[in-house]
Amino acid sequence: MNVMGIIFANDATIGELTNKRTMASLPFGGRYRQVDFGLSNLSAAGVRHVGIISRHSYQSLMNHIGDGEEWGLELEEGGMEYLTPYAQSVTHTYRGKLESLANAMSFLEFGPEDELLVMIDSAILSNVNLNDVIDCHIRSGKDITVVTKAGIANGEKVLDLALKMENGEVVDMVVDYAAPADYLASMDMFVLNKKWMIQQIKEMIGRDKFHMDRDLVLGGWQRGKVSVNVYEFQGVALFNESVEEYFYNSLALIRQDVRQDLFHGNHPVYTKVRDRVPTYYGEDSDIENCLVADGCFLEGEVENSVLFRQVTVEKDAEVENCVIMNDAVIGEGAELKYAILDKNVTVTAGAKLIGTKQSPIIVRRGETV
Amino acid sequence: MYFQKKRVIAMLLAGGQGSRLKVLTEKTAKPAVPFGGKYRIIDFPLSNCVNSGIDTVGILTQYQPLELNEYIGNGQPWGLNKTHSCAQVLPPYERHDKKSGWYKGTANAIYQNIDFVDRFYPDYVVILSGDHIYKMDYAAMVTYHEQHNASCTIAVRNVPLEEASRFGILNTNPDNSIYEFEEKPAVPKSTNASMGIYCFNWKVLRDALIADEDDPNSSNDFGKNIIPKLLNEGHKMMAYPFDGYWKDVGTIDSLWEANMELLGKDPAFNLRGDERFKISARNSALPSSYIDEKAKIVNAFVAEGCEVYGKVKHSVISVGCTIGEDALVEDSVVMPGVVIKDGAIVRNAILGENSVVGKNAVVGGAFGPGDKRKISVTSKGAEVKDSTVLLPGDML
Lengths: 369, 396
Fold this sequence. Notes:
The structure holds 2 protein chains of 2 kinds. By secondary structure, chain A is of the alpha/beta class. In chain A, 22% of the residues lie in helices and 30% in strands. In chain A, strands 1, 4, 5, 6, 8, 9, 10, 11 and 12 form a 9-stranded mixed sheet that branches. In chain A, strands 15, 16, 18, 19, 21, 23, 25 and 26 form an 8-stranded parallel sheet that branches. A 5-stranded parallel sheet of chain A has the order 14-17-20-22-24, with no helix packed on it. In chain A, helix 3 crosses helix 6 (194-206). Chain A is globular, with a radius of gyration of 21 Å. The N and C termini of chain A lie far apart (53 Å). The relative contact order of chain A is 0.13. In chain B, 50% of the residues are buried. The termini of chain B are far apart. Chain B contains 8 helices and 30 strands. Chain B has helices at 43-51, 65-72, 106-111, 114-118, 138-147, 202-213, 222-232, 252-260, and strands at 8-13, 34-35, 39-40, 56-60, 86-90, 124-129, 132-134, 152-158, 168-172, 178-183, 192-201, 237-241, 246-248, 289-291, 296-298, 300-302, 307-308, 311-313, 316-317, 322-323, 328-330, 333-334, 339-340, 345-347, 349-351, 356-357, 362-363, 376-378, 383-384, 389-390. By secondary structure, chain B is an alpha/beta fold. The interface between A and B is large, with 36 and 39 residues.
């Protein structure tokens, strides 16, 4: 089966951390960017033609993915393609996925007609066997397969799309709504027939409908025009749709079961290689319950935290419940609790940064505290 | 096919068995032996090449090449897979005149690949070996060679007089030109030891290799034959002094020492620092390491993909290792993929790739300041059974 992949780089934003980058290029889990999970899902399933759609903030994304070499996508035929907005047709940014897909029509129309299309978002991270999902889609004979996760809906979290199932059939569907706990949350991951999708996009855009979840899936299903199949994913799915969730999920990686599933579940997660040296733990360092990437130089105390590549923690510094991105330097005797440090932050000796679990302090890229 | 002319290419001798590394090279060629947590020995000369602007490297393999070939692959980790660059593995092969076969010596290995070198019409060929740990700018050496109008330039380092008899010693004039070469002299006249790094004018080397091949008494070796022959013929040969860190990791003890020399706040060999001289390695796509709340890591390297629940002191832990609860690893080199189970104690050891130390097992021992350190070694995939002992200096 020929399969084409589309990754949406920034369908959601989470404030400060995504001001100057896409959700896709948001660092996560010590050595990754969020897009690595979607790309690795596609790559592991043998998908060799992937388009990535972004509305803006391209630079860090292109710098990270390049020609897709790390994911086996540096190909002459197919491979990695960047689907940038056309200045002439969109003076505003895309209003929805359907509109951005309409702008990527030449990409969609390339290749055989019987191809399947896998669409993945960059805010929800998982290690999915997409071949399983594709088999499930083909067996169902339905128009569209939504990959879902149980246990996310709780009556409080507003979900992009949630579905209620009875006896294997969809009986209710809601969009942008805090669905109750017996609903399955969409992981913003879809499998559909490309030819069918091209037709849908044209019809929808022709009627000024541009919202994938609301107009195509929900609207189509309500009118009996679109048949919906549901694949319930059993592994770990991390919904990083707010700073609080991003922070909580980052620290959740410290749990062995979460780590095992996300990093070793079905396939390895590939990322850009940086050739950092192994992390050095100094004479007086005290590192407990942490996830630590390569290239760090640790002499202080760190507990319950995620350290990205090349982080320096000097003597007598105390770091607790923090997410510290690449190249941070935490000076002697500094104290950090419940903080997210973006890349290249310097915390001067003796400085204190104390946030809370619900609202961690965020230090912007390159700042000195 | 068109080959771009290159001013300089490198030939990397990676075919030796490295028999003094004993069980560690039973199934692996020495250049593929893991080093420093995430590297293999060959990463150092290969990265040095790239960092010196040398983008064409022939790699001569012979002994146990599977793992080494797989590791080098298309040269992508070092950026040697581009249109005008290559990392070409060159195994021995059969020829119509039946002259070829196994590489008989270091010089013969290059002789058999004259055709490969000729494709690039190089002015200079740098000959390297795959068993040293160091960072060096070969470009500076080539420039030195060129400025001195030499036929051959040999990198040298100063060694203590009492050790000089173990090396090839180059006796030089005040201007660093070489007047004599002595292989492992009983009474050394100087302390300039050859590092086994040569820069040749390709024309000179090419002729010398052909002449050497015709000499039935030659052992076809650079140190024993080619260098003395060129000296006798009156070629201008220069010594290129190098005073950076350099270590021959050809023995169990030196391999252990070189790993230990990476540790400390100001280590003898600092892998961090200078971005222009970073060492690249093939990546294993493993997540960040998890350090448990019961773990205690002091003065140690821990690479990615590890799970540490026990104690680690003054050690190098490579990618993908697990160190169980209440386990202790001290003064040891733990190679990739090793599992050390709960309660095990490992001291003064080198644990080969994917080896397993069982629950409450003991490997090696502690040594006082005056004692001769004896390193215990496990081979690739070996298993020290639960509650058993591998004595100091023993191998499994």
